[in-house]
Please model this.
Amino acid sequence: MCADVVGRQAELDSVGRFLDSVSDGPAARILRGEAGLGKTTLWQVGLDEANHRGYQSSLAVRLSRNLGQEMIEEVARWLPDHSFILGCDGAYSSLAGRDLPRTHVVSRIQRNAALYDPAPPRRPGQRGRPRKKGARLGTPQELAAQAVDGWTMADIDVRGERVERALWAQPLLWYAVRPLQQIMLVVVADPAQREHDDLLFCTDLAIAPELVASLYSGRWSIEDTFRNTKQLLGGEEPQCWRARGPERAAALSFWTYSAVWLWYLACHGAQPTWRTRPWYPAKRTPSFADALAALRRALWSRRIFDGSESRSLMAKISELLIVAVAEAA
Model:
């Protein structure tokens, strides 16, 4: 096994014993552990050793951050004259340290992240290597609690609504993720103190703090799209698992999602199609479930009852039946 991996002898021995036990037929090994413990390094060593022994090995997983970088690079090739702002979950915040083409990153920063001032300029005649970072600052959570001056009030877009938030921003160095360039730390606080502070950052130092807050909150529409596509259209249950079948199934689910919304907006626009519920009397905008139910009612009314005799069911009864079944489907 690889001698360059230090301090993981027990884990290396475990991987070696697994490879020794492999006989005819397929075998698999699962690596579990907290983030940052070196699972990828251990996995790569085991993969190299398996190949050295002549085993046929396959990659069971690709790092999601690597896939995210590949996606940005591909989109940048499609649109060579455009620049991009990538709004992503905190799990992808390390993409801020990647060399993404013409792309700035907006994401959530870890509450215990080690932050620093930028490296001070060298004095004339100063000896030794140049410093890479300045004085250690507090964590984002500590900086937000200690900040007294510099707060501004602004209206930001949160899930389609304009809400007032207090904003505090400061450029600093997140050395562990982006050691060569600064980030803009943005603290978003609720003046009424009903919600926890959001600790965000952006790799563009010239961006307005309220735009950072709105861009990150805008991720909600993406999360809602994924949920609806999976739960209401069966996007996570494709009946195909080989070649490009799953990719095509996912693409078809998203296409269907878009087609439903296009039909609904073209046929109904802002006109409500849902029944008022006692627990939600203030509802003003449709959900995807409302749009899908409206489409089902339109399709089923034509296909089921157009061929029936006019006296077979009263119009009121048939309409109630279709509404109930469309909402429950």
Q: What stands out?
A: The first strand starts at residue 84 and ends at 87.
